Model the fold of this input.
Amino acid sequence: MKKLFFIYFFIAAVCVSNSFAQDGKPLFTHAIGVQAYTYRNSFPSGVAAVLDSVKALGITEMEGPNPKNISPEEFKKMLDDRGISMPSIGIDYNSIIKDPDATIKLAKVFGSKFIMVAWIPHGKTFTIDDAKKAVEDFNRVGKIIKENGITFCYHDHGYEFGPYEDGTLFDYIVKNTDPKYVSFEMDLMWTFHGGADPAKLLYKYKGRWKMVHLKDIRKGVDNDLTGGTDTHNDVAVGTGQLNYPEIIKAAKAVGIKHYFIEDESPSHATQIPVTIAYLRGLRE
Done:
């Protein structure tokens, strides 16, 4: 099985890179990372096998934390043994609000410099009251995290782009959080799915963005403010609706350092090699 995977990866890498490569210097030159959530259904069958496949893809960063069936310390050692670092960990909103010290302790086990939250609890519709509570919580927790040498980031999820005053609820969150304590991680697909322009939004809040999630959405899927879509709509980067050459140029221009592939599709094993080949094939 493993042999077939490597054969497929080689063929996909060659074909896709030839398809997308152009004259000029490589556009995407950063290390490639992956969000651990991508492997949520694979980890229970064998953590070592998953990490071996991650290493084989040339991925050198992972956004965690650890899967449920292994301790943080053991997972950290397995990452170290494969040359994979964990610059960021994702934590549940309620967990970090109630006990930021526990999250800080976990981040320090992995040597992570960022802690991110990817979902603000809310009802059917995300409202200004939800945004105001998040701003208050983020400013308070972000200060505690910063005092421990770590940066707090909020990862947008699409539902925040509902209109508010002369902008959106996301604009409200950015403008009312303290830049000293609150930064952001852009999920490129969710930003697009919520009706925003990822490249323009990166430029608009230059200095606030620290990381991005690399993902794409199937052509023909309509945008909405739900913050959700069928996982089968996650497609390999470069094959969906997002304008990745424009986005990567913007990300480089605003100083993004960490890029994590997050592929929630059941087909992630075949799609991620295509994503990597596409990114490496981009030219300026």
